[in-house]
Design a protein that fits this description.
heterodimer; A: 288 residues; mainly alpha; ABC transporter involved in vitamin B12 uptake, BtuC; two-stranded antiparallel ribbon; two-stranded antiparallel sheet; 11 helices; 4 strands; globular; B: 310 residues; 16 helices; 2 strands
């Protein structure tokens, strides 16, 4: 029981981080990015590849991944998604277009990753056991959790205290209104999309230290991140953290008590409950 | 989607009759391509039935298809039922499943629906594998029948024709009109008194019915069924590509996409087996950036422009 609580909590740290990345992309840049999981797996592949070929510590890779994925995602937004934003007449049309376009990107990323590494991204890093309040877990899980918390906290403070962070939050509330008060909406959107992608890739590099991934697993993480974002309410960081903890706990409980193969089914069960009873998110208010 | 006329129905009847002769003139490789193409025609036409007017991208096809194929396999191997009984049960299960999913997701905005259907096939595959490993024992299921490729082809042709006929009636009926308004603007639809959720759920149920039926009919072709194979994650995406490539604005749009795509897809699978995923990705980008209305939409646009010029 204690094992479930501890490993569920540790797992939820990275989940929350990844969901924050998606929140920036969907809540601020208004792009439903279904290639999110693939960006995560790209981060994992970078960690795996650098560790096995050059013995680069995954923790160092985390730092290297940030600028690369930031620039990559910025270019994607600027050149592939901006035309869609411009041509869309409504939010609904943009959603359909961005869903199809990001599907395309996700398959291209998978195709490229398969040609780099077709098997599992298996490597061992910091896998010695440690004991936390009477429960045994591995060191890499704890390290990943702490880094995820640190990044998440930094992001939260930046969004709430800095001037640029306020601009980002303003765009997430209303693109029209923030344009009227002199915020450069396209620039902020591109920045938020790129930042979200970078955070997702970092999350992937962290996850790869304790979960073995492969090139085609991305869609599962896309789903989990989306479920967390919906459960927490779009644009709500506090909600996303609570939702990530719930998902991490439930998944770990199902994996240990029933069968590890059923974690996705558990996530779906939560998803259905949320859709039926609180589609506006845990802390969200019902739209009138 | 525009309402379909009587002329279109006549053309469809001629095409169905012509298509019925294919097994008499083709065999081996081309017949097997024909079966695959007919499978995708039935699947993508039923996809367009719902997603064409509403613009809701459904990725649940693979899930229903897998349920159909798996039920046939499990029913015949684990419970020794006849193929025909299982083929009759499968679409009903598919329809019930679709109705439940529709009830949970279609009352909300379209994004929730897409997300929900995205992992659906994978989730059902996990549950099915778990049930089979823990309670049923065997992993592979045998589907042994006397049905040959041409029989499967004719059955699929009948299904495709039935889907088309249903779509033809729907597009001329009140519910088809309601769906077009929903696709145009959902808020408007609600304000003029359309029960948007019910209309969407009914149509989505029909796609679940047909996808499961197609999965059941195609099962004898494999003779050996594994959950990993029938719940192929790619199937849903291929159906979306073919339907959108042809154009989801017309009921016969998918037909234009399926036939060339099936042939190209077979070719890519043989020539570049490792790059097939990459190819799917490129197709999606091609659709979004160059053919947002599909080939049919592009042709109609050109025709309208020519008429204006003359």
């Amino acid at each position: 029981m204690l094992d479930i609580l501890v490993s569920g909590l540790l797992l939820s740290g990275t989940y929350a981080l990844v969901a924050m990345g998606l929140n920036l992309q969907y809540g601020v840049a208004r792009i439903m990015n279904l290639a999110n999981g693939e960006v995560l797996v790209l981060g994992a592949l970078a960690a795996f590849w650098l560790y096995t070929t050059a013995q680069v510590s995954p923790l160092l890779t985390v730092i290297l991944v940030v600028p690369v994925s930031f620039i990559g995602n910025w270019l994607i937004y600027r050149f592939l998604l901006t035309p869609l934003v411009r041509r869309s007449k409504s939010q609904g049309a943009l959603e359909v277009d961005s869903i199809l376009a990001t599907f395309g990107m996700s398959f291209i990323i998978i195709g490229v990753m398969v040609s780099i590494e077709g098997g599992f991204f298996a490597y061992k890093y910091l896998s010695e056991p440690i004991s936390i309040i009477g429960s045994t877990t591995s060191l890499n899980r704890l390290v990943a959790f702490l880094i995820a918390c640190a990044i998440g906290l930094a992001l939260y403070l930046w969004l709430n205290l800095s001037r640029a962070g306020v601009a980002v939050r303003a765009v997430s509330v209303s693109t029209e209104a923030s344009g009227l008060v002199g915020i450069n909406v396209p620039r902020v959107s591109a920045f938020a999309f790129a930042l979200g992608g970078a955070i997702t890739a970092v999350g992937g590099a962290l996850i790869s230290t304790f979960i073995t991934l492969d090139a085609s697993i991305g869609v599962v993480f896309t789903l989990k991140a989306l479920i967390i974002v919906i459960m927490g309410g779009v644009g709500d960081i506090r909600g996303a953290i609570v939702a990530a903890i719930i998902l991490g706990m439930v998944e770990t409980a199902v994996a240990t008590l029933v069968d590890p193969g059923l974690t996705l089914a558990a996530a779906y069960l939560i998803f259905v409950l949320i859709l039926l009873f609180r589609p506006q998110g845990i802390f969200g208010r019902r739209a009138t | 989607m525009k309402p379909a006329g009587w002329g279109e129905l006549g053309w469809a009847a001629v095409l169905v009759v012509l298509a019925a002769f294919l097994p008499l003139v083709a065999n081996g490789y081309w017949l097997s391509i024909g079966v695959t193409a007919m499978m995708y025609i039935a699947l993508s036409t039923s996809w367009v039935l719902f997603s064409g007017p509403t613009h809701y991208i459904s990725l649940a096809t693979g899930a229903f298809f897998g349920v159909g194929g798996y039920l046939v396999g499990s029913g015949m191997s684990d419970y020794s039922q006849s193929f025909w009984l299982m083929a009759a049960i499968s679409p009903i299960v598919g329809a019930i499943l679709a109705a439940l999913i529709g009830f949970a997701t279609l009352r909300l905005s379209g994004v929730y629906f897409v997300i929900f259907t995205l992992g659906l096939a994978e989730m059902i595959r996990n549950v099915v594998s778990w049930v089979q490993n823990n309670f049923l024992g065997s992993r592979g299921l045998y589907v042994l029948t006397d049905l040959r490729d041409q029989h499967i082809y004719w059955m699929l042709l009948v299904v495709a024709a039935a889907v088309y006929l249903l779509g033809w009636f729907v597009s001329r009926s009140r519910i088809g009109f309601a769906l077009r308004i929903i696709g145009g603007d959902e808020t408007v639809a609600r304000h003029v008194g359309i029960n948007t959720a019910t209309a969407k759920v009914i149509l989505f149920t029909s796609t679940g019915f047909f996808a499961a039926l197609v999965g059941a009919i195609i099962a004898p072709r494999w003779s050996y069924i594994e959950p990993n194979q029938v719940f192929s994650p790619q199937l849903s995406f291929l159906v979306v590509i073919m339907a959108l490539l042809g154009g989801s604005g017309r009921l016969w749009g998918p037909l234009v996409g399926v036939i060339p795509f099936t042939i190209i897809w077979e070719w890519v699978g043989i020539q570049f087996p490792n790059q097939s995923i990459l190819f799917i990705g490129l197709c999606f980008l091609l659709i979004v950036y160059f053919l947002p209305q599909g080939v049919v939409g592009r042709l109609e646009e050109l025709r309208a422009r020519m008429r204006r010029a003359s």
